[in-house]
Amino acid sequence: MAKHDGAAAVRFGNRRAAVYAARLNPGQPVQLPEVPYLHMFVTSGSVDLEGAGALAAGDAARFTATGGQRVSAFAPAGILVWEMHADLAN
Description:
The protein is mostly beta strands.
């Protein structure tokens, strides 16, 4: 995606998607992006997903036309977040 041009450590050839990785300390919140499609995977530890509750390593959540939820770690945790857009005209 153009907004990440030059900032990504790893790039993949899809201009309508981005992936984020985060390591969270206990109680440290992050806010998920507000996008048409989003997929979050918990790689380690456990987190609290606003509106859904607790998720543990191996759990995932998918969102459509939403976002902005906060994710906080109960213990040290890792998450991967895929941001996806479906604008097929571009």
